Every structure is written in C-alpha cells, then in structure tokens.
Amino acid sequence: MKPWTEKKAVLSALANEGVRVGERILPSGERLRGLYTTRDFAPGDWVASFSGRVISRAELFALHDADPALFALVNEYGVATKDGGHLYPPDPSALGGHLANHACGPNATMSGRWERGALLLQAERPISAGEEVTVHYHWTGVKAATEGRAPTPCACQSARCCGTIELALEAHEEKDADGGVTLALFLPPEEVENRIAADVVNAARANEATILQYARNAHLMFSRGEARRASWADEALLGRIADAVRAAAAAGLGRGAARSHARLAELVGRYL
Ligand SMILES: [Zn+2]
C-alpha cells in the first residue's frame, strides 16, 4: 500500500468510519450486540480501532474489591497490552473495536498494532459490507476453571463452532506431599481435537494459538496464595496437538475447501 493510502486507511480505522453498531438474534431469542461493516474490506485492511484507557495489572487487582463494577467491565471488554496491562473502553456503548464478538473462525484480529494509543483491528479474510466483524478472544479457560464455572457458550456462526469461547479445561484438587492442596488444570485431549478441527474447517489459526498460549501461561498462574499448576509439559502438549492433527486428517477435514486444505497441510508440516 502507498504511504498516503496506508495513512488514510489507518485514520479511517481510528475514526471507526467503516463500521457501525449492530445486532443479531441468537437461537435463544436474545439479541447480541456486535460490530458490523459499512463497506468491503480485503485481507490486511485496517477495519476499526479499540481505544480507551490502560490499567496496569496491579491496579486491576486492587479494583477487585475497590470497584467491582469497573473490575467487571475490564474483565468483559479488556484486552491485554504488551506490558501486562489491560486496555478497556470507559464507555462500552461507544462505537469501537471492543464491540467485536468472539468467533471460533474469526474474520479479523486485534492486530497488535497501536496508533495514537488505540489498537487496530485488521481483516484476516475478505469482509463484505454489512457483515459482522469478529475476532478470537484467546481465552485460555483458566479463570472459569479455577472459579468452578462452566466455560462460556459460544454463539458464533463459524463453519465449525467449538461450543465454548474459552478452552474447556478440567480442574482437579490434588494433595501435595506437604499436605497442601493444589488446584491442577487439565486440557483434555478431546478439547485439543475439537479446537484443531475448528481451525482446519474454519481455515483459522486462533485456536492453535490459544492452546499454545495456555501452555505458555499455565505455569505463571498463581493468585491469592492458591497454587495452581498445569499438567502439561511442552513436549506432551505438542504430542496432543499432533494427535489432533492426525485425527483431523483421518476425518477428511479440509477436503474440498482450498483454504481449509492449506491450513491442514500447514498443521501437518508443523506437528507431524
Ligand atoms: Zn464458536
């Protein structure tokens, strides 16, 4: 893209000129608010921007008791910044990238590109005028599992939906040698298979990335004196993903659709 065209595209995304607030009706009859385009976007285009305030991790922990409403807002809408903080919209009803709903096979991504304090959303695939803009939330499921909550049901319209937004983890209490109790988290092989299958069918990378993120972060998860640990060493994780890739290939997933086929070939090349 020429520099001036690129600059105009960034300014347009910053102003959220190509999107509007919209909604769709879920099978349950509920209305789900979301972000919709008003024009076509090509892969790589800047679609919209997520602007707001940044709160540090320490400030967020303090909010838990001091301002539960704001704590809940940051949890619902916040996205992680590089330095461990969270960007959140002070007014969630305003138009912006924070309105993008989760999808198991999203058409856009929170790109990681910041401009004037805002995070830009980038199209991952062609998005037609009027279509809903979706991103993948990359929730690892640790929060839900440790709070004893069921994972959040997903209402996306991807070709293959995983059923839940966050990874469906299992949590078990385990006695330590010294008599203490540790909450151990498990990512079941069926869930890995479910996620990899979705990535193949949806021709997306988001679920694979979320599994890897879970593995990376799992050993860091300590909170309020309660030790938690993940059961997976990296090598075992890669083995489980390899099994899931084999299962997807054996089931014939990706056959017929060029993008899905390419995605499966990429996974085979990486893990088998
Ligand atoms: Zn879904």
The 3D shape can be described as globular
Helix content bin:
25-40%
In the predicted model, the low-confidence regions spanning at least 5 consecutive residues are 222-228
Q: What is the chain-wise order of helices and strands?
A: HEEEEHHEEEEEEHEEHHEEHH
What molecules are bound to this protein? zinc ion
Classify the beta-strand content into a percent band. 15-25%
Number of structural domains:
2
Largest sheet: 4 strands, mixed
What this model shows, in words?
The protein is of the alpha+beta class and 272 residues long. It folds into two domains: 3-52 and 89-135, Beta-clip-like (Beta Complex), CATH 2.170.270.10; 142-271, no CATH class. Helices cover 35% and strands 24% of the residues. It contains eight helices and 14 strands. The strands form four sheets. The protein has a four-stranded mixed sheet with strand order 1-2-10-7, with no helix packed on it. A four-stranded mixed sheet has the order 11-12-14-13. The protein has a three-stranded antiparallel sheet with strand order 3-9-8. A hairpin with a 2-residue loop joins strand 8 (108-115) and strand 9 (118-123). Helix 5 (189-202) runs antiparallel to helix 6 (206-218), helix 5 (189-202) packs across helix 8 (258-271) and helix 7 (234-250) packs antiparallel against helix 8. The longest helix is centred in the C-terminal third of the chain and has 17 residues, at 234-250. It is globular. The two termini are 37 Å apart. Residues 222-228 have low confidence and may be disordered. Zinc ion (ZN) binds at residues 103-104, 154, 156, 158, 161-162.
